[in-house]
């Protein structure tokens, strides 16, 4: 998992550890807080022998999709991104559905205009989109079977 150690955006590494443990895996935590850290982060991943990369949700990392996609391709590391980056050449993305996110933001905004903030109930996203780029998968030598246990909401050919 690629994380920004200076971020206050809620490092999800502990969540990744718990989910990985259920699968018998031990995820590595690789840190990058600046542009100059990114190349060495991927070199570290190769040295550690990581099989795949999950990019954490962080403003710095979210602002670098092209850089991350290029580095993932250069080092042949299958990667999943927290925002839709697959159309630009990334392998996969998994994020809250944009239409429901906008609708929720509108509801929350309207509620804040009418009520004290302490009485507002915020809820987690309930709909997510999984996108996979088959061209990138083929370049990495990966297959995504049509009857996959993890069907994509969108497949980019």
Layout of helices and strands:
Layout: E1 2-3, H1 13-22, E2 30-31, H2 35-48, E3 53-54, H3 59-62, H4 65-74, E4 79-81, E5 92-96, H5 98-114, E6 128-133, H6 134-139, E7 154-156
What is the domain total for the residues? 1
The CATH superfamily turns out to be Response regulator
What is the molecular shape? globular
- What would CATH call the architecture? 3-Layer(aba) Sandwich
Order of helices and strands: EHEHEHHEEHEHE
Mean pLDDT equals: 83
Poorly predicted residue ranges: none
* Sheet/helix structural class: alpha/beta
CATH topology: Rossmann fold
Distance between the termini: 26 Å
The portion of residues forming beta strands comes to: 5-15%
How many strands, which pairing sense, and closed or not: the largest β-sheet?
A: 5 strands, mixed
Q: If strands are numbered along the chain, what order do they take across the biggest sheet?
A: 3-4-5-6-7
Q: Treating each run of at least 4 consecutive H or I residues as one helix, how many helices?
A: 6
Radius of gyration: 17 Å
Helix content estimate: 25-40%
Count every beta strand, where a strand is a DSSP E run of 2 or more residues: 7
* Oligomeric state of this protein: single chain
Give a brief outline of the structure.
The chain has 157 residues and is α/β, with parallel strands linked by helices. It contains six helices and seven strands; from the N terminus they run E-H-E-H-E-H-H-E-E-H-E-H-E. The longest helix is centred in the last third of the chain and has 17 residues.
């Amino acid at each position: 998992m690629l994380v920004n150690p200076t971020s206050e955006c809620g490092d999800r590494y502990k969540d990744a550890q718990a989910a990985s443990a259920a699968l018998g895996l031990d995820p590595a935590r690789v840190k990058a807080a600046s542009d100059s850290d990114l190349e060495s982060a991927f070199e570290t991943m190769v040295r550690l022998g990581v099989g795949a990369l999950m990019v954490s949700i962080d403003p710095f990392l979210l602002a670098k999709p092209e850089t991350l996609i290029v580095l993932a391709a250069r080092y042949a590391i299958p990667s999943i991104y927290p925002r839709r980056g697959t159309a630009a050449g990334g392998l996969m993305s998994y994020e809250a559905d944009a239409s429901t996110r906008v609708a929720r933001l509108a509801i929350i905004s309207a509620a804040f205009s009418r009520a004290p903030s302490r009485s507002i109930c915020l809820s987690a996203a309930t709909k997510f989109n999984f996108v996979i780029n088959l061209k990138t998968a083929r370049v990495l030598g990966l297959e995504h079977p049509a009857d996959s246990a993890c069907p994509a909401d969108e497949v980019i050919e």
